[in-house]
Design brief:
elongated; single chain; 5 helices
Length: 103
């Protein structure tokens, strides 16, 4: 019985990351893929305990990881675009952002 918890914990971790990714700015283009993946990962909990124990989660995790990497790249690109529109001092790490020695 407790062996199932290892698989369920991994499932919950994947769902947490997928849900967080779906809420990220810049992730709208991935909403359908994220939603489908969440549905598929949720279906794993509907299996009987014996089948849960026999699951090979590596392919599931690889698919989730690939999707999360795509979302992450998109979110970072959005952040870089926003920085490019920011003030010149912010872009260059101007003097107000320099580390000042203790007086």
């Amino acid at each position: 019985m407790f062996s199932v918890l290892r698989v369920v914990r991994q499932r919950h971790e994947m769902l947490w990351y997928l849900t967080a990714a779906d809420r990220a700015p810049g992730a709208a283009q991935f909403h359908d893929r994220l939603e489908t993946t969440v549905t598929n990962v949720n279906r794993l909990s509907e299996l009987p305990g014996e089948q849960i124990l026999a699951l090979d989660l590596d392919p599931v995790r690889e698919g989730v990881n690939a999707l999360l990497l795509d979302v992450s790249e998109s979110v970072r690109a959005l952040g870089l675009k926003r920085m490019a529109r920011a003030s010149p001092a912010l872009r260059s790490g101007g003097p107000e952002f320099a580390i000042q020695p203790w007086s």
